[in-house]
Amino acid sequence: MLWHRREGGCDITVELNHVTPVVCAVALLIVHLAGATPATAALLAGAWVMIAISGIWAWQMALHLHASRRLGARWVQVGDLMEERFRLRNDSDLPVLWAEVNDHSDVPGYAASVVRSVDSNNETAWTHEGTAARRGEFHLGPWSVETGDPLGIFIVRLNYAQAHPLLVYPPLTDLPFPPLPRGASPGSSRIRLAAPIPTTNAGQVRTYELGDSFRHIHWPTTARHDELMVKMFDQEASADIWLLMDTDPAVQSGEGDSATEEVAVLVAASLTADLLREGRAVGLITFAHERRLVRPARSTHHLWTILGELARLPNATHRQRPALSLPHALDQTARLLRSGSNLVIVTPSIDPLWVAGLAQLTARQIVPSAILIESGQTQGSPLQALLAEQGVICRSVRCDVRLPVRPALGRTRKWEFKTLATGRVIKTMESVR
Fold it and tell me: Which of 170, 219, 229, 411 has the maximum number of C-beta atoms within 10 A of its C-beta?
């Protein structure tokens, strides 16, 4: 390394790429000093002028070349198009004949490495597209830009060590089995009966009466009727629904989209979306590296909270990491849930030991049901019959049958940048299907 400088988040270095020209120039100097001739003088002058020009060129690149990259969003969903905006600016009077962008992002199937050139006192910009192919928590970067003089004697590196996080949410699908039972509490998903105490559901209004709290006044209706109107609160939905994901690496199998982990995440995400669409309160429990718990709630925002937790679950590349076995997970779950809750267990395990653990759930008036993720090795197992003997509703999904995926918003999104008449650049999101 001949020179180093840090500018913001960029480490700029100048290195000697080829030592041969310098060695030859030193050898010519020694020969010329030993016996000067017009030939050695010409060769010596030419060699040192060549090195000097190359050094000045590299020095100008190190001082005046700047690079940047920008992604339109910090999260995407599987199937979404990702577009990054790259920019190279050259403030030098010398052109950048070549600039190699090396991207070290860990996003599966995404590589933004490219070679560009920039004229003197100019800039170049381009967009790189890629499809989010795998759910998970990834990083864009670190990355670097390499350039140098035309002869390649010196190399200039701009190293950007910072990596920006990118969360890829799992997709959704239409589940290939009938709906699960409603839980222990009877009734529809939203009971239209007045509740004696305030709840999260308010579906009716009535005239204000003495003693009503001013916090319950519904001001839009009051303005229309020209008299005070208060909200009437509905009873809560029939029962909270908890999803328990089996993350034990000992029971997982398969690779890619057919891996049991990926199919289980796809089923859990789709079931969450369907239940929230019905107005149910859905929660999530996982025991991957530590216990992670998302308490039941109803909202579109809550769907993304659960999808985020599912996106961070280990995949096939992390099967060696320790995780709690399903029997132990059921034992801990039974102590967390309240009576009347509905627990949906999503697992590829065919071990009958965890079925015996369901007795402690029913003893606490927790209604269990199961979704079995069947790989090629577990199809035709007697576990469904064993669950039926205990009165546990069971559904199954085969890993070898590919489920059509869809984004949560119903369409794939593509980020684009537009330049206004004022010169301001804004980002837009347009559908591509």
Answer: 170
SS3 of 84, please?
strand
Tokens of residue 28, six digits:
């010519």
Report yes or no on 197 lying in a domain. no
Residue 119 domain flag: yes
Q: Phi-psi region for residue 152, left (φ > 0), alpha (ψ -120 to 50) or beta?
A: left
pLDDT at 322 over 60: yes
Examine residue 8 and state whether it is found in any structural domain, yes or no: yes
Q: pTM to 2 decimals?
A: 0.77
Neighbours of 161 (CB within 10 A): 12
Q: What are phi and psi of 291, to 5 degrees?
A: -70, 125
For the segment 181-230, what is each residue's pLDDT rounded down to a tens digit?
A: 554 443 333 444 444 445 545 557 888 888 788 888 988 889 988 899 88
Q: How does residue 370 score in pLDDT terms, banded at 50, 70 and 90?
A: very high
- Total number of domains in the chain: 3
Domain containing 343: what range?
Answer: 172-187+239-406
Consecutive H or E run containing 72? none
Q: What is the 3-state secondary structure (H, E, C) of 258-289?
A: HCHHHHHHHHHHHHHHHHHHCCCCEEEEEECC
Give residue for tokens 């590196």: 157
Q: Which of 302, 294, 295 is nearest to 276 (CA)?
A: 302
Q: What is the DSSP string of 44-65?
A: HHHHHHHHHHHHHHHHHHHHHE
The pLDDT value given to residue 379: 59
Grade residue 373 by pLDDT with cuts at 50, 70 and 90: very high
| Nearest CA-CA partner of 40 in 49, 31, 48 | 31
